[in-house]
Amino acid sequence: MQPPLDPSLPPSPPSLLRSGSLFRQPRFRTFYAGRLVSLLGSSMAPVALAFAVLDASGSSQDLGVVLAAHMLPLLALLLVGGAVADRSSRRNVLVAVHLGSALTQGGVAALLLTGHYALAPVAVLEFLNGALGAFTAPALRGVLPQFVDRTRLQQANSLLGTARNATKILGPSLSGVLVVAVGSGPAIAFDAFTYLLAAGFLARLTFTGTTEPARRPTGLAADIRDGWAEFRAIRWVWIGTLAFCLVNLVQTGTWQILGPQLTQRLSGEETWGLVLSVRGIGLLVSGLLMYRLVVRHLLRLGQLTSVLAALPLLALGARLDAPWLLSAAFAAGLGSAVTAVAWDTSMQEHVPPHVLSRVASYDELLSYVAIPVGQLCVGPLAQAYGAFRVASVAGAVSAAAAALPLASRAVRRLPHAAAPASAAEPAPAAGRAGAA
Question: What is the tally of helices (H) and strands (E) in the chain?
Fold first, then answer.
């Protein structure tokens, strides 16, 4: 496993960043293939599941129960997932999770294909699927540095981010076509197959020259507490996480709920589809740019560009015409992709490897737990103060929250491992484990 960035050592030459494609490396190629098929299936599943439940039950209440059954364990078990990934082989965790997800989604598909839909078994299977998902993200954050050189982590994250964004754009459309052509049951069965295929790819991964996390004599509860201590000790991590929490609280629900409503009122229904497409193009373009871009302070760049995500809400709040809204959506896509690559790469470069998954799990939990809270608040606030005013305030607050971490020197000055040697600066202390 690659150690965290050591300020006493000179950074690797920037030429390493461009010394051939990562796809020439068999381990990355195998990992990328597994992630690509898994992401494609996962992006198709929500559309197929929604149609399946609505067609089988005719009840939107059933759909709400199924979606909640999937989301609640995903959030509740994230910290456990981080602890398990740090104390076990992350590859084995990912293989087990993907096999389990194949079984749960296959079970849902079987119920639908045989005409035996019932709310209780589908909700239980989705609950199990969500519980398995809680182990995925922390293990994924920690496993990449085990077979990718730290000077190439930015490239690896940009390629993976591009795949993720591309499947988010293509997956729902493909799922819709598949549902119309053959039904929702086969579409969910395809998702189960992609999990199985991904497990096969991940099982082929080897970590020659790296050290798998050793099993710990302490229990999971102690590991979770240690993870919290490490999270709090790394200043730039908790500052950034709190900022993302506030951004998600005020921005995500407002965009999801008021975005289509206000766009329809200003420019018509077709404009909302264009807005989403243009934002997706921005995500893809930015992902490709980040494969080549080398900067001295990657995290600083990521925080700066995160402000761009607020532009569409500000454009809606100001009642701007469609061209301005489309431009804002494109800029938001650009900024969001840069932010994601910068954050993931910075964590993998600077957080000690043996606590990386636990720190990542706290980051995931605190960042995303605010989303359902914001979604519940948007409707009442819009009724009380007006939808356009809520959009404007949400945009302004999210922009300020995104920029706030830049007030911290720990965020502004965090060095990037792939930066030129002349840009080398001491790294901030990486918590208790990093200082030991």
Answer: 20, 0
Helices in 114-252 by DSSP H: which ranges?
Answer: 119-133, 136-143, 153-182, 184-203, 220-233, 235-247
CB 104 within 8 A of CB 126: yes
For residue 424, what are the CA distances in angstroms to 83, 321, 377?
A: 32, 45, 45
The CATH superfamily assigned to 225-435 is: MFS general substrate transporter like domains (1.20.1250.20)
Looking up tokens 């456990």, which residue turns up? 80
Torsion sign over Cα 168, 174, 179, 185: negative
**Residues in contact with 227: Cβ distance below 8 Å, sequence separation at least 6, in sequence order:** 79, 82, 83, 86, 355, 358, 359, 361, 362
Quote the percentage of the chain above a pLDDT of 70. 89
| Cβ pair 302, 346 in contact under 8 A | yes
Other Cβ atoms less than 10 A from the Cβ of 169: the count is: 17
- Residue 209 reports pLDDT greater than 60: no
Tell me if 265 sits within 8 A of 317, measured CB to CB. Answer: no
How far is the first Cα of the chain from the last one, in angstroms, to the nearest whole number?
17
Domain extents in the chain: 14-205, 225-435
The average pLDDT across 356-377 equals 92
Neighbours of 153 (CB within 10 A): 25
pLDDT higher than threshold 80 for residue 160: yes
- Residue 19 is predicted with a pLDDT of 45
| pLDDT for res 47 | 83
| pLDDT band, residue 150 (cuts 50/70/90) | confident
Structure confidence at residue 49 as a pLDDT band (50, 70, 90):
confident
What's the CATH architecture for 14-205? Up-down Bundle (1.20)
> Of 236, 361, 382, whose CA–CA distance to 298 is shortest?
236
With beta carbons less than 8 A apart as the criterion, state whether 203 and 31 touch: no
CB 332 within 8 A of CB 309: yes
Q: How far apart are CA 279 and CA 284, in angstroms?
A: 9
